[in-house]
């Protein structure tokens, strides 16, 4: 199973996929210019139990001696991470279990990712539409996995009007029944006639081909690496589309698993940090308005400055 390990000690997520080309693995490695890492587990062609697969993965993580700390991502779960934890302590996203059997103190990061995105959508709507709430705001959510569906719940409860798409018909039916959402074909969701597009599936969906088709004035979602290239941020700006940089708006999950791993998890502190995602994006949006620079460029500059000024111990906790 290919395992991507990047420089320094890093904390990121593991995803399981049936197939992935070597050049795509290398491209995903390139997309971590500030450090961090991504583990990609290629499901074997010969039958192998999930328990055996993640047992082997746990051993691989353990051999890295703490240079890589893993947690859930696409195709993986808390149960998978519990299997990993039998082999290594360099894992998070498991949580504690109280006397009633309920998970506390972290666990599945996807609800925290979704809440951070929700705060980010609120900030983007305030900046671009001048709205203090989401009632009646039309939002298209691409991808109804753990993060996307949790986000839909938050948006629906806030009064947003949802359009949804997913490659799994059952997920779409569930969203239509639960939220009164409108269904859209996956290939058409980015061009939906809405106020906000929220990519919450896989990355590289904002391209020189797709950006001209966007009708939304805001892009704010949880997918990683939404821009195919950095230059696509310029294309969004040229079209006056406000883009919430992906690693800023989707940081809620990594914040949660980091606090859990460092044994500093506190629900109130996490809530404050997640709300801070919206405030941080508001600052980026204001700076973009002031300077005329694309938001992805500003976010990268902020990240570089923060990393350069941090002491080594702080880099682990950031």
Task: Outline the structure in words.
By secondary structure, the protein is an alpha/beta fold. It has twelve helices and twelve strands. The strands form four sheets. A six-stranded parallel beta sheet has the order 9-8-7-10-11-12, sandwiched between helices. A two-stranded parallel sheet has the order 1-4. Helix 1 links the parallel strand 2 and strand 3. Helix 2 packs across helix 3 and helix 9 packs across helix 10. The protein is globular. The relative contact order is 0.12. The N terminus is likely disordered.
Characteristics of this structure?
Rossmann fold, two-stranded parallel ribbon, 12 strands, 318 residues, 2 domains, alpha/beta
Largest sheet: 6 strands, parallel
Low-confidence parts: 1-12
Q: In the CATH hierarchy, what is the superfamily of the largest domain?
A: NAD(P)-binding Rossmann-like Domain
CATH architecture label of the largest domain = 3-Layer(aba) Sandwich
The CATH class of the largest domain is: Alpha Beta
Indicate the overall shape. globular
Number of strands: 12
Mean pLDDT: 87
Whole-number radius of gyration? 19 Å
What order do the helices and strands follow?
A: EEHEHEHEEHEHEHEEEHEHHHHH
Lateral strand order in the biggest sheet: 9-8-7-10-11-12
Q: How many domain modules?
A: 2
């Amino acid at each position: 199973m290919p395992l991507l390990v990047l420089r320094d000690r890093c904390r990121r997520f593991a995803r399981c996929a049936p197939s992935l080309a070597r050049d795509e693995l290398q491209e995903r490695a390139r997309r971590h210019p500030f450090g961090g890492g991504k583990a990609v587990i290629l499901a074997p062609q010969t039958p192998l139990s999930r328990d055996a697969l993640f047992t082997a993965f746990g051993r691989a993580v353990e051999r890295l001696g703490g240079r890589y700390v893993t947690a859930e991502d696409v195709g993986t779960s808390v149960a998978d991470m519990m299997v990993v934890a039998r082999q290594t302590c360099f894992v998070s996203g498991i949580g504690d279990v109280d006397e009633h059997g309920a998970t506390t103190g972290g666990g599945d990061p996807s609800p925290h990712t979704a809440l951070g995105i929700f705060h980010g959508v609120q900030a983007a709507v305030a900046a671009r539409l001048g709205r203090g709430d989401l009632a009646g705001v039309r939002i298209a959510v691409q991808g109804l996995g753990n993060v996307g569906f949790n986000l839909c719940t938050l948006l629906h409860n806030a009064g947003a009007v949802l359009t949804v798409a997913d490659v799994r018909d059952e997920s779409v039916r569930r969203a239509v029944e639960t939220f009164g959402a409108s269904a859209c074909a996956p290939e058409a969701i980015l061009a939906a006639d809405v106020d906000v597009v929220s990519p919450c599936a896989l990355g590289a969906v904002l391209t020189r081909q797709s950006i001209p088709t966007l009708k939304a004035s805001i892009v704010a979602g949880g997918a990683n690496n939404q821009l195919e290239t950095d230059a696509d941020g310029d294309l969004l700006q040229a079209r006056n589309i406000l883009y919430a940089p992906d690693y800023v708006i989707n940081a809620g999950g990594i914040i949660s698993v980091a606090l859990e791993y460092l044994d500093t998890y506190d629900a109130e502190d996490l809530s404050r940090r997640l709300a801070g995602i919206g405030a941080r994006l508001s600052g980026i949006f204001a700076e973009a308005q002031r300077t005329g620079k694309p938001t992805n460029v500003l976010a990268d500059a902020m990240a570089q400055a923060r990393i350069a000024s941090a002491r080594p111990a702080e880099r682990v906790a950031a």
